[in-house]
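Researcher: Let's try something more involved. This one mixes different molecule types, so please make sure each is placed in the same coordinate frame as the others.
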Amino acid sequence: MRSPVLPLTWHLTRSSGRRGLQSHLLAAGAAAVGAFVMLVIIAATLGAGTRADHTTWRTPDAVPAKQATAVQALATTYVRHEPVTVVSLAQLSGRKQTPAPPGLSSFPKQGEVYVSPALAELLHKLPANQLAGRFPKVKSYGTIGTAGLASPDELVAVVGRTPTDPAVSKAAGDTSSWFDMAQMERAEISGFGGDTASMFTAGDQGIAVLGVVLLAMPVVVLSAAAGRLGAARREQRLAALRLAGATPRQIIAMTALEAVALGAAGALTGALTYVASLPALAQVPFGVGTWYVDTLWVGSPWLATVVAAVTALITVSAVSMLRQVATSPLGVAQQANPRRTRMIRLAFFAAALAVIFMFSGGGLQAEQAVALLLLFYGAFWLFGPWVVDRLGRLVSRFAKRPATLLAGRRLSDDPRGAWRTVSGLVLAGFAAGFFAVSLLGADTSQYRGQVAVTTGHAFEARHTAAEARTLLHRAGVTATVTTGPTDAYDNLLGGGSGVIAHVEGGQEQLDTAVTALTPLGAGRFPYGQDYAGGSDKATFDRLDAVTIGTLALSFLVAATSAGLTAAANVLDRRRVYGLLRLAGTPLKVLDRARVRETVIPLVVLAGGTTAMGAYGSYQLNKAAGATINTSGAIELVVCVVVGALAMFAAISGSRPLLRKVTADPAQTAD
Amino acid sequence: MSTVLAGYGLVKKYGSTTALAGVDVEVRGRDSLAIMGPSGSGKSTLLHTLAGIIRPDGGQVLLRGERLDNLGENRLSALRRKRFGFVFQFGQLLPELPAEENVALPLMLEGMARRQAVVRARRWFAPLGLDGLEQRRPGQLSGGQAQRVAIARALAVEPDVVFADEPTGALDQRTSTEVIQLLTSATRDTGAALVMVTHDADVAAHCDRVLQVRDGRISNYSQFTVA
Ligand SMILES: Nc1ncnc2c1ncn2[C@@H]1O[C@H](COP(=O)(O)OP(=O)(O)OP(=O)(O)O)[C@@H](O)[C@H]1O
Ligand SMILES: [Mg+2]
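Model: All components are placed in one shared frame. Result:
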């Protein structure tokens, strides 16, 4: 015998009317948002890894001198504050031909210069005495293909040289000051294998993972809210079906079927939106710049996984919600006992904080930091409902107005539900508070306007200084040139020998000075403040981008789920709201109660954790003697305010629904 | 006793359906009126019209001589809150609020301080046989208990008229009798009038008068002589 479940589900889904259609669309829309956000952040994570892989050829693994076929040196020079990666390559004579590096068709011959398209454009745009003069003169530049580049915006040059050229000499690889770390390398090589990514891409994936961690929970909550929205509407109909003799199992099967169909349709839409917006997403700069479109393609297994996961979440949520209806005809809104939360949650939270405090003293490995972050999140996940419960009791004890009393009682009646709505923002708020106000890294402002040229020996410095003055004068740059005292470790030479030019004028003058002084560097580029702060900037810029990006997406997701939850709550309670309205209760009171129910825990918890994060970061920074990132703090405040407004708007979005479902006395009263 | 609430020539149409086709009713203080009739005959429509929930297409509704049917929505809403009490079939209590706060809610809406409102609300519990249930939530009450809490809430504002639409529709026979006795006697004690829609003749028998409605018209009007 054929089961009646399938045709019956189809019939009921189709005949569920306009309101039914609306909530189908809302639920599917939520699934779409969830799948889209998840795919975007996974794409960023995987893409960041791919990008890093595209830079490893610039620092290939060294081989023993006997097996080496070429010498390779990496250098970094800055123009207009942007890093230009310069890879010098020299074939050793009498050795086997070295294979071509990625992005090039053959190993560069001496005197050849290959540049990335972005660098080519810049070379064209800027006067030669500001940039082109730093490279060997050539008739035309070759082009580095995408295989050798992380981003279309990357500035990279490959220069072919002789093995005796100072640019590939041992001195060129002498990383004497800590500024040189990861910005300068030299190796004898036989190919371009290796797994050291460039400084500008190496940390990106780890930081993107942070975004995944921060966004996963809000997306789960959103999917759950979507599932619940469908269930609230189905409740009445299925209770009626049950009275008509359908078994609970059949009812659950029908719900599951409907939820799977809705969830899959929504998640697929989200996935297609992701695919369709790949070209646009690729234009969003992160780290080294915008993306190659194929870098952001996650591949069909990931696509399928995300669609399946979102669908499963929605289905599980819909079914578990309906289980209660299927087993008790009284329905969900009539739950008898408030879901109490126990003290043990507080104890666990305190213990977790103690552990975090104990371990977070000294220098942390990245893995340890992530583990502590996860522990903090887990603890907070348990702790949140407890706080909401207490908060609800506190509010209802001191409430004077009916709306506040109602909101307070609602909070302690279902603290987990209320926590779910705000949790994403609370946790994102903490991370955002922490990172947005985070360290700027070492302060390099004392190097402003300086250009340093290193010399091999101290006695050369005086001679070099004289040459530098001549070159700068010829280039039209006004500058005072000093020889750096070798015992001063805190100047731009970092204790090495050389000269420092204090350049007057703006960035153009500095770039001109660097270009003019390049011949003096014995294969090493002159450098300035940007070089000194390069490594810190690479890290903190990324953190900043991910923090703000994650916060913005969290708000999008959290506002969507708050809106859905608010709509589902109205539908759940339409009878009691309708009857109260008939009895003359102003709709305003009911509406205010709804808003306060979300806004109170949001302000207290999200505000609290954001402040906690900012404070923690401030303390750390003070200990490290670094300055506070004020622009980050302002960004944070703007983000929080905009997000809170979005949340508020999302909740208010269900006001017409509240008005509508309570408007018709005949419908509610019968 | 003078007339508290009256409807004259009430007409209400929904498209081609005529729910009320010219009904006249008068209710005096302490008077209790049962409205009976087959399903779809217009009972609820009549009750809603008298209570200022639905605006009639024709006729007038008068509360102590003042017309309601031409008041604005906000005035009507305030009037229902202050001068009327309502008891519905089920599901009218807010599930998160303890019973006493459900009863105190209309008083708080009128601006009474919360503490005072709760003290006032508690006074209703003993007379309605709800002693000790003040802190229970609606979900923890039986159907009959929940209806008695609803009665307490309707009476707490000391209304002129209590409207009840099938107040015992979801209860069994015995509980139904208990609840209806409490409803009629408590309403009479406060001096309010009672207008009640019911299917159940036994329930209607507790009222002073019974109005039979059929196709939007009064088909029969009987007066019980209550001892
Ligand atoms: N909002 C509405 N829109 C359209 N028709 C309505 C509406 N409300 C009531 N009606 C119609 O008006 C008539 C009277 O309805 P009413 O609800 O007053 O009946 P009733 O006597 O209370 O029935 P029951 O005993 O089933 O509750 C019915 O034919 C009904 O279909
Ligand atoms: Mg009716």
